[in-house]
Amino acid sequence: MKSSKIIILSACVFALFSLLFFNKDALACEAAPLIGFEEIEPEIYVDATLSQIDRETLLAFVKSAKARVNNAFGEMISFPRYIVTNDTKYTALGFNSTGMARSTLLRECVFIGPKGINVDVIAHETSHAELFHRATFYTKNFKIKPWLLEGSGTYIDYREPLLLSNISLDSLTVEHIKSLSDFSSSDVQAYQASRVAFKEVDPKKLYEGIERLNQGESFDEVFGK
């Protein structure tokens, strides 16, 4: 009896540590006030690497980024937590050097690193956070294809490589990217192909499409192959 209890306890401890290890970014989001981040406005956290001028600029960027999302797709209903740093040491806790959006059990989080403190990256990641908020767990993890997620992000991301006028890809490349279930965040061509593919989506019906996925329709029925 004792040995079985020890085995069960050990399994629970292992599962807990595994959960924490593979969800370090989610843990970092919830623990932001405890790991050196200060809340400068509701749900906007920065560390000491941002000067007062940096902080004021950041607040303007976040406001503009949210406006881009609202104007492109409709009014946001999420209120993501932004965690921003100029220090690369936080990569082990979920940051990359640019930006990323993640969900926890309680909220959506937007991590912004040293290369991402600009309105384009913040708008891009904010659009992800809004889609995550609107999607059910199943839709988010098993139904939304990466080209749609990144296509909508790049739609409001005006960095030079992502502008349609600067993208030259053949249809086979675009169709290949649309067929992928995942691609690397360093694959610029995949982001460009996603931007091209998103031309076929009415941005004002994006949220409606996510809700249709939530209600059981297939991705191909809603957004096409």
Share of helix among residues? Answer: 40-55%
Give a quick account of the main beta sheet: strands, pairing sense, barrel closure: 5 strands, mixed
* Averaged pLDDT: 89
Q: What is the C-alpha radius of gyration, as a whole number of Å?
A: 19 Å
Q: Which range does the strand content fall in?
A: 5-15%
Q: Could you give the count of β-strands?
A: 5
Please identify, by name, the CATH architecture of the largest domain: 2-Layer Sandwich
Distance between the termini: 55 Å
Sheet with the most strands: spatial strand order: 1-2-3-5-4
SSE pattern = HHEEHEEEHHHHHHH
Structural class designation: alpha/beta
Topology:
Elements: H1 2-22, H2 24-30, E1 38-41, E2 44-46, H3 52-73, E3 81-84, E4 99-103, E5 108-112, H4 119-134, H5 137-143, H6 146-155, H7 171-179, H8 188-197, H9 206-214, H10 219-223
Parallel strand pairs: 2-3, 3-5
Antiparallel strand pairs: 1-2, 4-5
Helix pairs in contact: 3-4, 4-6, 6-8, 7-8
Fold and architecture overview:
- The protein has helices at about 1-20, 25-30, 50-75, 120-135, 135-145, 145-155, 170-180, 190-195, 205-215, 220-225, and strands at about 40, 45, 80-85, 100-105, 110.
- With about 220 residues, it is α/β, with parallel strands linked by helices.
- The chain folds into two domains: about 25-135, Zincin-like; about 145-225, no CATH class.
- A five-stranded mixed sheet has the order 1-2-3-5-4, sandwiched between helices.
- The longest helix has 22 residues, at about 50-75.
